[in-house]
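Researcher: Sequence of Divalent-cation tolerance protein CutA follows. Predict its structure.
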Amino acid sequence: MKPVVIVSTYPNKKSILKIANELVKNKTIACVNISKIDSVYSWNGKIQNSPEYIAIFKTVTKNKIKLKNIIEETHPYDVPEIAEIDVNSINKSYLNWLIESTN
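Model: Prediction complete. Tokens:
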């Protein structure tokens, strides 16, 4: 089984914590890292400078479609970022924990 990392940004911590806890509880993901960031982007023809939270979801290949669908269905943004990062290398002990945590 291969590791999968999905990245998304959220407008506030509350909006990510609810879904993050549910995803860990139902073993869709092993964990999610959440951190406050500042984002600069174009939206509706204007440059925006906004505080956001980045969520780094960690799972395995068998759960990635389900995870992407849940993020899209529950996300508060009209156009959510759902970016998959290709993991070419990962230490064996972490991979074993990841697999065990999502089974």
